[in-house]
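Narrative of accomplishments. A recurring question from our advisory board has been how the design workflow behaves on a single, concrete structure rather than in aggregate. To address it, we present the structure tokens for one chain from the evaluation set, followed by the sequence designed for it. No filtering or post-editing was applied between the two.
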């Protein structure tokens, strides 16, 4: 089954310890094809407040974005080819991971204060069919996040 599960450790003396939502089961990979798209801006937190707009990503917070149905990304896509950009007010990093998964702890984009930095990435979408991604801002201040797509895999 796909999804997040808790991990329970039982000692020989029957004492247990539980870490809630500590492990994510993903389906086995399947062969996919890349379908290119004309580069398109999927989300920009500098824009007016909305599901794919502002406000800026808050300090040490995670925000969920649904990207399928935008810029030609079909609901059947399993991952997207992207260019992500930060417009920073404080140094830190962004981590992007599937919408129904726990934070992987691997950052996708590191930045210093006052920088506009970019990086490309293949981003896996949620495995539950929602077509969503989470973005975590690991920084002491709010920062803007921009995501452009140039292809998808299905």
């Amino acid at each position: 089954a796909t999804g997040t599960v808790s991990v329970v450790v039982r000692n020989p003396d029957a004492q247990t310890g539980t870490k809630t939502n500590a492990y994510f089961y993903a389906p086995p990979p399947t062969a996919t094809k890349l379908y290119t798209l004309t580069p398109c801006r999927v989300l920009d937190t500098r824009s007016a407040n909305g599901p794919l707009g502002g406000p800026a990503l808050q300090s040490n917070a995670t925000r969920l974005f649904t990207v399928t149905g935008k810029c030609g990304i079909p609901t059947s896509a399993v991952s997207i080819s992207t260019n992500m950009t930060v417009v920073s007010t404080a140094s830190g990093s962004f981590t992007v991971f599937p919408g129904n998964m726990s934070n992987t702890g691997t950052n996708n984009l590191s930045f210093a204060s006052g920088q506009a930095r970019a990086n490309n990435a293949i981003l896996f979408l949620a495995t539950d069919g929602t077509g969503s991604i989470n973005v975590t801002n690991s920084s002491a201040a709010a920062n803007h996040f921009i995501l452009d797509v140039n292809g998808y895999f299905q």
